[in-house]
Amino acid sequence: MIVVMKPDSSKEHADHVISLLDGMGFSSCLIESAERKVVEVLGIAGSFDNMGLENAPMVDKVLPEAGPLLAASRRPGEETFQVPLGARATVGGTKLAVIAGPCSVESRAQLLEIAAAVREAGAVALRGGAFKPRTSPYSFQGHGEKALEWLALAREETGLAVVTEVLSSAHVELVARYADVLQVGSRNMHHTPLLRAVGQQEKPVLLKRGWSATLEEFLLAAEYIMVEGNHNVILCERGIRTHETYVRNTLALAVVPEIKRVSQLPIIVDPSHGTGRNHLVTPMSNAAVACGADGLIIEVHGKPAEAWSDGEQSLDLGQFRLLMQGLRPFAAASGREG
Ligand code: PEP
Ligand code: MN
């Protein structure tokens, strides 16, 4: 059971609740984050009796379990949050937001070529990994800060916002200096110190679903970021691991309308990692937009066959242009501007 304190409550108000509980013979602990105080009553399972605690001063509500969405939940009648994607675009409004670029930033020339092409085709942000979370320690790990500099240069040249992954809490400040949006990858969705660290800085966060995470775990990971004060979280469905072998991951698109129902956070879809196959990226992009996704993140490469990572799921520049053109009727059908 948890006792959620009102936003303006003081430590004394929470201590009062703890002493009331103590008097009733219950142990409890105060969980305090930047924007919320919560008292968890320990060792209570089974039937729920709020013990009259909701009448104590500055108590907001008493809930049976310690897993509710407090910041990320949808309030009836309210619109999806609009999260800035650099200075010129947002995710979560009526306009579909497409983020595109290479899996890894390989060179200055590679990045600038792709950036110009995806900008021309209608993308609003450039993706590209500077710090790469590779499965093998013997695979290319990214160019690090040099790649961040090239991403910033590409932003200067094209006006595209920059989305790039941060792998560790130690790099949050460095990546936030260059990026418009910090990506937390699938492998790190459960890494709560990193979630807190990106919650304590001001740049928006693109949070990818862990490939074995349930929807509840995914949303609670977003909650970790939000309790630290950063409400600019973009969720990203990128496929989950199943028994299937014809795809790299199984793209779980039902999560899109379900997240729309339960959460006010915008949700985008990554059909590149979500399928792992070049020929499936366009149809699944269309499907994602048709079922209500606020945007897409797509891997694009000048020469996919020569890509240093994820070439088999990357579109070439022409394929990406065609994808963008083909999205228009699906965007219109789901009530969006293209
Ligand atoms: C990526 O976006 O290149 C990436 C590594 O994605 P994920 O974390 O979804 O595997
Ligand atoms: Mn990739």
Brief digest:
The protein is α/β, with parallel strands linked by helices.
Describe the structure.
With 338 residues, the protein is α/β, with parallel strands linked by helices. It has two domains: 2-63, Alpha-Beta Plaits (2-Layer Sandwich); 83-333, TIM Barrel, CATH 3.20.20.70. The protein is 33% helix and 17% strand. The protein is built from ten helices and 14 strands. The strands form three sheets. An eight-stranded parallel β-barrel has the order 7-8-9-10-11-12-13-14, surrounded by seven helices. Helix 2 packs parallel to helix 3 (145-158) and helix 2 packs parallel to helix 10. 45% of the residues are buried. The model has no long low-confidence stretch (mean pLDDT 96). Bound molecules: phosphoenolpyruvate and manganese (II) ion. Manganese (II) ion is lined by residues 103, 273, 299, 309-310.
Layout of strands and helices, then pairs:
Layout: E1 2-5, H1 11-23, E2 28-32, E3 37-41, E4 59-63, E5 83-85, E6 89-91, E7 97-101, H2 108-121, E8 125-127, H3 145-158, E9 161-165, H4 172-178, E10 181-184, H5 192-199, E11 205-208, H6 215-227, E12 233-237, H7 255-262, E13 267-269, H8 271-275, H9 278-290, E14 295-299, H10 317-333
Parallel strand pairs: 7-8, 7-14, 8-9, 9-10, 10-11, 11-12, 12-13, 13-14
Antiparallel strand pairs: 1-3, 1-4, 2-3, 5-6
Bound molecules: phosphoenolpyruvate (PEP) and manganese (II) ion.
